């Protein structure tokens, strides 16, 4: 493995205060910075007094640039990759470059920082033990609905990036596919002046956006609660009687399991009721 490195450097998603000291240091020290949009990144570099030369690396030239960057690294140069905002490769270019650089035997080093999806997830109030990141949905039409239908069956929290001109269409699609039972969290303009986090059912969030067109502006992360099997804990007198009767012939655990299968009431709830009925006898 050679000494040359490729750093994957996260930059802010709005608030420049989120630029890390390590990101500034690395960007100052590397020989060259590959940037998604060099004009856009030049402003950020000027703000932080980073004079390192920028070269373009975006969706349309990444393969060609990857070869060139590997050659520069073979000649001993150290390189950093940045995107327009947040963490490179997260709905941003860089996958092909990282693959090529790794295959050429060089180390790729992360310099972590802001990522809109993770920031949104952390304030969403939705479960974070498992989650799925979809990135951008297909822009429109049947493909988009079909993808949402597939995501609707996921049991973990999931989320998408969305642009302002499609946010109301996304709400329509979510409402059509998910109905109104599902909770969503919409995180808009994270770390910026008009940062807003709206949580509620699809129709509640849709109503907030519809009532104020300012809420339809800016950048969005939309997070959706995972699908949950209907877990009823309602116990009618008939169900209690059924459990009581089965417990005459079966152990409590088995009786609770049979009643759960027949009624949809959670086994744990029935088991606890069984224990209580037994102790009341
Ligand atoms: N690489 C970036 C990251 O780490 O989050 C994402 C780049 S992707 C091309 C841009 C999308 O990310 C936007 O369309 C929006 O959905 C989301 N996004 C970026 N900045 C955001 C912010 N400040 N607030 C909400 N969403 C943001």
Written overview of the protein:
By secondary structure, the chain is of the alpha/beta class. It folds into 3 domains: about 5-115, Tetrapyrrole methylase, N-terminal domain (Cobalt-precorrin-4 Transmethylase, domain 1), CATH 3.40.1010; about 115-225, Tetrapyrrole methylase, C-terminal domain (Methyltransferase, Cobalt-precorrin-4 Transmethylase, Domain 2, 2-Layer Sandwich); about 230-280. About 45% of the residues lie in helices and about 20% in strands. It has 11 helices and 10 strands. The strands form 2 sheets. Strands 3-2-4-1-5 form a 5-stranded parallel β-sheet, sandwiched between helices. Strand 8 and strand 9 (about 195-200) form a beta hairpin. Helix 7 (about 165-180) packs antiparallel against helix 8 (about 200-210) and helix 10 (about 250-265) crosses helix 11 (about 265-280). The longest helix is centred in the C-terminal third of the chain and has 14 residues, at about 265-280. The protein starts with a strand and ends with a helix. The mean pLDDT is about 95. The site of S-adenosylmethionine has 23 residues, from helix 5, strand 7 and strand 10.
Structural class: alpha/beta
Mean pLDDT figure? 94
CA-CA gap between termini: 74 Å
* Helix and strand pattern: EHEHEHEHEHEHEHEEHEHHH
| DSSP strand count | 10
In this entry the ligands are:
S-adenosylmethionine
Anisotropy-based shape: elongated
Helix content: 40-55%
CATH topology of the largest domain: Methyltransferase, Cobalt-precorrin-4 Transmethylase, Domain 2
**Strand order across the biggest sheet?**
3-2-4-1-5
Number of domains: 3
Radius of gyration: 26 Å
Uncertain parts: none
CATH class category of the largest domain: Alpha Beta
- Shape-level CATH architecture of the largest domain: 2-Layer Sandwich
Summarize the biggest pleated sheet: 5 strands, parallel
Strand content: 15-25%
Look at the structure and name the CATH superfamily of the largest domain.
Tetrapyrrole methylase, C-terminal domain
Number of helices: 11
């Amino acid at each position: 493995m050679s000494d040359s490195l490729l750093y994957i450097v996260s930059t802010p998603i709005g608030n420049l205060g989120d630029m890390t000291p390590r990101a500034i240091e690395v960007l100052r020290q590397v020989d060259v910075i590959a940037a998604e949009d060099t004009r856009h990144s030049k402003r950020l570099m000027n703000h932080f007094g980073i004079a390192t030369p920028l070269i373009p690396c975006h969706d349309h030239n990444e393969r060609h640039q990857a070869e060139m960057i590997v050659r520069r690294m073979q000649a001993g140069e150290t390189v950093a990759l940045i995107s327009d905002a947040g963490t490179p490769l997260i709905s941003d270019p860089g996958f092909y470059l990282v693959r090529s650089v790794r295959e050429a035997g060089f180390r790729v080093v992360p310099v972590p920082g802001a990522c809109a999806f993770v920031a949104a997830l952390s304030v969403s109030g939705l479960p974070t033990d498992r989650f799925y990141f979809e990135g951008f949905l297909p822009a429109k039409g049947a493909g988009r609905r079909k993808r949402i239908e597939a995501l609707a069956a996921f049991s973990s929290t999931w989320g998408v990036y969305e642009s302002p001109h499609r946010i109301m269409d996304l709400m329509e699609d979510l409402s059509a596919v998910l109905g109104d039972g599902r909770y969503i969290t919409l995180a808009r303009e994270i770390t910026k002046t008009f940062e807003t986090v709206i949580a509620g059912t699809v129709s509640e969030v849709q109503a907030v956006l519809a009532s104020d067109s300012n809420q339809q502006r800016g950048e969005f992360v939309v997070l959706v609660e995972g699908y949950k099997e209907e877990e009823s804990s309602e116990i009618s007198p008939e169900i209690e009687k059924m459990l009581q009767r089965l417990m005459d012939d079966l152990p409590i655990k088995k009786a609770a399991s049979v009643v759960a299968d027949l009624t949809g009431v959670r086994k744990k709830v029935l088991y606890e009721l069984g224990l209580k009925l037994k102790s009341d006898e």
